[in-house]
Amino acid sequence: MVGAALALALPLAVQSADAATTNAGTAAAPSYTPAQVLAGVKKNSTDANKVNSKPHINTMTRAKNVNVYQVAKGVYAYGSGLAVDTDGSDPDPDPDHQGTTTFKDSDGKSLGAHHVPFYVLGDDCYDKKSPCPHFFYKEHGIKGRQFALMFYKSKVIGAIFGDTQTANDQDTSDNDSRELGEASVKAASLLGINSSGTDGGVDNGVTVVIFSGSDWVVNGTNSTLNANTQAMVTKALDSLGSSMHL
C-alpha cells in the first residue's frame, strides 16, 4: 500500500469533504505527511514489535491473519478490512442495528454511527489469560473514546474507540472478541468506503493506529466529536512521526 504512487491527503482535505459536520477550521500542515507516517508504521510493523502471540480475525474475510504491532511508545497499529458498524443512537436500516454502543459521548449518550467516526475492538480476552495472547485493549492503556488515525488509500482520518465486539460466550465464530476491522458508518464514509451496513465495507487495506493514554481520549458530544477528533489529526501525525524518528 505504501509506495511512490501513494499520496495520502492531508487531514484538512478529509475535513473539507465533510463540511456539514466539521467546524475545525483551517488546520496547519503537519511536519510529517500522512504518507511518511504510514510508511513508518509499516516499517515498524515487524515480528519484534508484534503484541499478540495468536492472530486476530479479519472481520470482513474471517481470515486469521491480523496482527497488532507497537510501532512507537504507547502507539499500536494493525491492518485489516473494514466492516461497517451501524450501532448506536442513529437509526439505520441494517437489520443487525443495535441502539447502543459500549462507550458513550461526554453526555452519556450512545454514539451515533452516522455522526461519529469510531472503531471497534474485542471486549474481553478471548483466551481468558493475562497477559492476553491476543491484543486486549485494557492491558495497553486504552479506554473509551481513545484516539486513532485510520488510513485508507488516499485518505487519513481521526477516529475514536466507540464500540466492542461481542465476548466469546457464543457458539459461532461471528462477532467474537478476536476480530479486528470494524468501524462506524461515519468512519467508512470519511475514508471513501461504501458505508452501508448491509453491503458496505472493504476486505483489506485499512490501517488503524491507536494512541494510548489519557492525553489521547477525545471528549465531546455526538454533534461535536467528529470535529474534535479531526482537529487532532495533525497533532497525531507530528507526534508519531517524531516518535518514529522519520
Explain what you see.
- This protein is an alpha/beta fold and 246 residues long.
- It has 5 helices and 9 strands.
- Helix 2 (34-44) packs across helix 5 (233-243).
- The longest helix has 11 residues, at 34-44.
- The model is unreliable at 1-25 and 168-173 (pLDDT under 50).
Task: Please give a quick description of this structure.
By secondary structure, the chain is α/β, with parallel strands linked by helices. It has 5 helices and 9 strands.
Outline the secondary-structure elements:
Layout: H1 11-16, H2 34-44, E1 57-58, E2 68-72, E3 75-85, E4 118-122, E5 147-152, E6 155-165, E7 179-180, E8 182-184, H3 185-190, E9 202-211, H4 225-230, H5 233-243
Parallel strand pairs: 1-7, 3-8, 4-6
Antiparallel strand pairs: 2-3, 3-9, 4-8, 5-6, 5-9
Biggest pleated-sheet summary: 6 strands, mixed, barrel
SS element count, helices:
5
- Label the structural class: alpha/beta
**Bulk shape:** globular
Strand count: 9
Q: Report the helical percentage.
A: 10-25%
Calculate the mean pLDDT score and round it: 88
Beta fraction: 15-25%
N-to-C CA distance: 18 Å
Radius of gyration: 16 Å
Low-pLDDT runs of 5+ residues are 1-25, 168-173
Q: Give the neighbour order of strands across the main sheet.
A: 3-8-4-6-5-9
Topology as a string of helices (H) and strands (E): HHEEEEEEEEHEHH
